[in-house]
Amino acid sequence: MTDRLGAVLAGAVPRVCAAAVALIAVDGSVAAAAAAGELVRYADAEGTLAPERPPAGRDSIFDLASISKLFTTAVLLSLAEEGAIGLDEPVAAWIPGHDPRVTPRRLLTHTAGLPPTRRIDLELPGADASERMEAMLRTPIAHPVGGPYLYSDVGLVIAGRVAELAGGAPLDALVRARVTDVLGLPDTGYRPTAPSRVAATEWKPERTGPGCVRGEVHDETAYALGGVAGHAGLFATAGDLLAFGEALRLAAIRQGGAVLRPGSVAEMLRDQGAEGAAFRHGLGVRIGDPAIVGPLTGAFGHSGFTGTSLVVDPARGLTVVLLTNAVHPVRGRDGIRELRHAVAGEALRLRGLQPLT
User: Could you give phi then psi for residue 108, rounded to 5 degrees?
Assistant: First the structure.
């Protein structure tokens, strides 16, 4: 089983990505695992091979990019369970002066009318992270509030800040206390401290240090905000991300609730009616996203710009993790969608060996 998954990854490395790790769990047990490629393959944007190219393994750490949004969502929902926030309260309760129509629910469903992104690093090149955050919080509404769906990193940055204000702690501390410590995820966090295990991402000569980015967040906005933001910034191993996905899967079938109560996960996975999306949208999570689920129709999860994805299929008892660095040494490489579908297809094949009951 692992050999088949390994062949899928080997067919994509290094054409699609320099490194890839995949894990498939069936009914909570790892049924297939594979790793391929090198954590650092290139020394520059021209594709010059790096002098040292350490191999990728199951203990390798990858920049999760927008999968970070699921952890922000988990923190917000845990605060809602405690009554610290209301999903339909105006965020102006925590950020005075903000548009009163914007709520945590609208931030998590990308229907708050906020722009997709904001290069605050370019707007405020001499500012520190706190000044840039204050500017992000003042981002004006640019589109209809309430829909249609418009994917917005800005909205999740604001959601992360709401979590901090409601939770009384920085976002990285909230993620640690409410998610990673609860699940025992030692290699999941912001600003990793073991760079030798981290997969390199893009060539960014504007940053300090030679070579491609490694050990610091790829996303420019998250980097400008100090490496911790609601939309991006988390790093993890495939095993840690699988455990997080399993926690959501078990809560979805009402067999667990370590991080979130089953009722909270049910609301997370309810179609929130975000019009105009190519998939159904829950709270912070995509349901049936054709870009990542492949044949696992009805599964939920999220993808990351760096080439990562988490897909959870409660009905079939499947959790599928794919971590890659498809932006190394430059972004825009073809084939990541096909790789995600191939890994999901292998998960479906494995499920076929163990029929649904």
Answer: -75, -15
